[in-house]
Amino acid sequence: MRPTTDAKVLERLYGADVPPFALLRRQRPGAPGPAPVELLFGDMDTGKSSGPWGSSGSSGSVDGAETVGSMDWAGPPGAAPGPGLLALLPFRHLAAHGLPCHDDGTPVRVLRVREHHVLPADAFTDPRLPGAGPLEWRDAGFTTTDTQYEDLVRGFVASDAARGGLNVLLRRDWTARLPDFRPAAAVDLFRRLLTAESGAYWTFVVHTGGARPLTLVGATPQGHVGVEGGRVVMNPLCGTYRLPPQGPDAGDLLAFLADRKESEELATTVDAELAVLCGLSGPGVRVEGPFLRRMAHLLHTQCRISGPSAAGARETLARALFASTVVGSPYADACRAIHRHETTGRGYYGGVLALIGRDAAGAEELDSAAVIRTLVVDHRGEARLSVGATVGSRSSPEAESAETRTKARTVLTALTAQPPAAAPPPAAAQEPAAAPRACGVPVFGAAVRDALDRRHAALSSFWTEGTAAPPVGAAPVLVLDPGGDPVAELAALLHLVTAVQGPAVVVRYDAPGAADTLVRHAGPVLLASGPGRPDDPGCVRMAALRRTAASLVRERPPGGPPVAGVGLGFQLLALAALPEARVVPRSGGTGLAREVEVFGRPVTAAFRNAHAIVSGPDGHEVVALGEQAVRGVQFHPESVLTTDGAGVLRRLLG
Questions:
Q1: Where are the beta strands (DSSP E) in 417-484?
Q2: Model confidence over 278-336: pLDDT tens digits?
Q3: Half-sphere exposure of residue 259, counting CA atoms within 13 Å on the CB side?
Q4: CA 447, CA 250: separation in Å to the nearest integer?
Q5: What residues form DSSP beta bridges with 109?
């Protein structure tokens, strides 16, 4: 990228007929100094749509999975280095993956880059820029009261889904009318974000142009998926510390970092992203962190996960869905919960902005960010800012409501001299505004570094330290996929199996002759985990799985390779192998790390299933089976919360 020297390029953004454009400041982790600002001009392709947030600015035919999976995104080999396309994927794109969502008609939009200018970081501080003048905010406020949002959270916390370990990001909307809004106003808002917000992964404006344009202005902390230097990279982020007006308090910050709920929520998010990353990467996946992402009003915790890229940029993006941070986990169950609890579509909120091009060597590059902390303004000047909080079984409705107010205030304080007055005023505007920059206690002091190091040390060494070479010549492991979910969650487990045992072959539970194939297999068999209660009498899938498990326990030759199970797979084997085994709801919630003894060794393990296996007259919980022929563990060895997952799996399959 070469810096642009023509000062007139910015003046084009303030004209009467502004073409489609994007302004991007992409702050790469670890990059020294402030990043430059990239200015893209191009042609906007817009998918067909009839929804209120999807009105087209130009005709086109690209939409849905076809857009992501089929288009020539980065141009042919030998194309000039730099960005080729900027894609804006709406939340309803989930439907292309068989997941439920409200279809509000919001289209996929693609900016085909014709001009790429690189501006210095201080380009927008030039007083000679014309500016758009004061921006008037009318009828500003949340569309739901704090009480209504707290009731929504309270209802979810009390649900069976939450008690079963489901975590979901539930949104609320802040809206306003901006009379006479035009692209120049968006540029001015971008200028304010550059100075008032800090720590964003992307700070951006996207203007679609055309007769009915849409404009997005935001500063998102959440990177999604990227391809750089031959590696695929994801940046799972979860956990929010609200900075007090006087700056971070050392004691409060250390308490936040030591909070088990916060650390387990981040680990759960990392697990969900690992399930995606391992399907896109070859051996050698690594987990780094956690780190702190410091913004003007908030601190977030996040990790970086990466592995050798096994797919091109467009396929990587097509298969990566959206960040679990903006949905929840387990992913498909969270999508269903959002569909139930949110009554309207999300538009672009929770979707992705993706930039695809080629690097200096001609290789494909991908960088993308989640569309959060973003103001969306349509051609009528109707503005919407969506914010949300991740809600689980231990959530406080009042705390989650306060988190949404803080997130809204983060954006609004940056976009205005003070949060716009609401009618009635939103709670965010009634609270003292946070300082533009966190100050006071050194955020990255020794005590904080030690706290982050302790959290890193508590993660699975398999993911943080790399993997050893798998055995040579080992018989393949047949892994039974229990189905029940359109989002494949086997990839991380398969990655672990391949590393410790050798090649793995997946067999669907409903494939013709699946049970006979597993019984006759000369090597180890592993029943994977999945959703559902194993003794559900009304579930056809569970009935088939119970028959398969019984056949394996009854018919596998004695003294041969073991049959093992994890999670649901363990439960199915336990019901078949233990005469007094029965299923009960797990007490105290799930998704938690517990200290247990497995095969004579202490293990910190991730328990996520909503139900447990108990046995005997006293109903003691069974967490492992260690017989020669039938083995298993209730927990998930592939989780970053399971400290010796590789060792556990090696003992199960060896």
A1: 477-481
A2: 999 988 899 999 999 888 888 899 999 999 998 888 889 988 878 888 998 888 889 99
A3: 18
A4: 9
A5: 46, 88
Please name the residue ranges forming H helices in 71-109. Answer: none
The residues near 51 (Cβ < 8 Å, ≥ 6 apart) are 103, 104, 105, 106, 345
- Residues forming beta bridges with residue 226, ordered by sequence position: 233
HEC per residue, 531-586: CCCCCCCCCHHHHHHHHHHHHHHHHCCCCCCCEEEECHHHHHHHHHHCCCCEEEEC
Backbone dihedral region for residue 282 (phi beyond 0: left; psi -120 to 50: alpha; all else: beta): beta
Assess whether the previous peptide bond of 183 is cis (omega < 30° from 0): no
Q: Quick check: helix, strand or coil at residue 160?
A: helix
Please state the pTM of the whole predicted model.
Answer: 0.85
Give the CA angle between residues 106, 109, 111 to the nearest 5°. 160
Query: Taking the CB of residue 547, how many other CB atoms lie within 10 A of it?
Result: 14
**In the numeric block, which tokens belong to residue 6?**
């023509």
Please give the Cα distance from 486 to 426 (Å, whole number): 39
Q: Contact at 8 Å (CB) between 623 and 598?
A: yes
| Residues β-bridged to residue 38 | 24, 118
Sheet holding 525-527, edge to edge: 504-508, 477-481, 525-527, 563-566, 630-633, 624-626
Whole-angstrom Cα distance, residue 275 to residue 307? 12
CB 107 within 8 Å of CB 61: no
CA 551 – CA 568 distance, rounded (Å) = 16
The length of the chain in residues reads: 654
Complete DSSP assignment for 372-415:
-SEEEE-TT-EEEEEEEEEE-TT--HHHHHHHHHHHHHHHHHHH
- DSSP assignment of 514-537 equals HHHHHHH-SS-EEEPP-SS-TT-T
Spatial neighbors of 339 by CB under 8 A, at least 6 apart, are 100, 101, 102
**87 touches 94 (CB < 8 A):** no
Percent of the chain surpassing pLDDT 70: 86
201-210 residue pLDDT tens: 999 999 999 8
C-alpha–C-alpha distance, residues 2 and 230, integer Å = 23
CA 481 to each of CA 85, 277, 454: distance values in angstroms, whole numbers, following the listed order? 37, 19, 35
Within a 10 A sphere around the Cβ of 654, how many other Cβ atoms?
14
β-sheet bridge partners, residue 355: 86, 367
Alpha carbons 212 and 117: distance in angstroms, whole number: 26
Q: Are strands 138-142 and 167-177 parallel, antiparallel or unpaired?
A: antiparallel
